[in-house]
Design goal:
8 helices, about 75% helix, 2 domains
Length: about 180
């Protein structure tokens, strides 16, 4: 399921709020609604409110956000209008986090996980070949997954290399 990152949308609407003209008020309203949605979910995540309270409060915000997007589509500049129209067309993608347990309304955690890789790529200029790119993608994915599972990264790769030369699969050697 696809979830729009509300943090990215908040930043985008903040940009409209810094403009002059009708986009200023529309951008502020949209930014505030999305910030409130994130705040409500944070209260739920921190066990300050129950799931039922979160859903009830988000239900009210959902309708308000829809009205703000319709207003932005009708009264905003061309680019704001197009953004609001696109978000209204995929409105359910703003609320996927309410249907999938454990999903967040932002992808901040995923971006933090990728930060080290992005910095490495900038410092080293990445790789030159498609084979090198695939290698980095795979090693990084496996390493981050093992780290989150609290498993040994070095041990896993040692077993993988030994398994390769012994012609057995890693899953036969390690219980993954």
């Amino acid at each position: 399921m696809h979830q729009h990152c509300l943090a990215h949308l908040i930043r985008e609407f903040r940009g409209y709020a810094e403009r002059d003209g009708p986009d200023k008020e529309l951008g502020k309203a949209l930014e505030n609604e999305l910030q409130t949605v994130c705040h409500i979910h944070k209260e739920y995540r921190e066990a300050i409110i129950t799931l039922q309270q979160r859903n009830r409060r988000l239900g009210k915000r959902k309708r308000r956000l829809e009205i703000c997007l319709e207003d932005g589509m009708a009264n905003g500049s061309d680019d704001l209008s197009k953004l609001c129209e696109r978000l209204l067309h995929g409105f359910s993608k703003l609320w996927t986090f309410t249907k999938v347990p454990g999903m967040e309304p932002t992808n901040n955690l995923a971006e933090r996980d990728l930060r080290k890789l992005v910095i490495w790529r900038k410092k080293s200029y990445g790789t030159r070949s498609d084979r090198g790119k695939r290698f980095v993608e795979r090693v990084t994915t496996v390493s981050e997954t093992l780290k989150k599972q609290g498993k040994s990264i070095l041990g896993y790769f040692q077993e993988a290399v030994m398994s390769f030369y012994a012609k057995v699969t890693v899953s036969d050697v390690l219980c993954i």
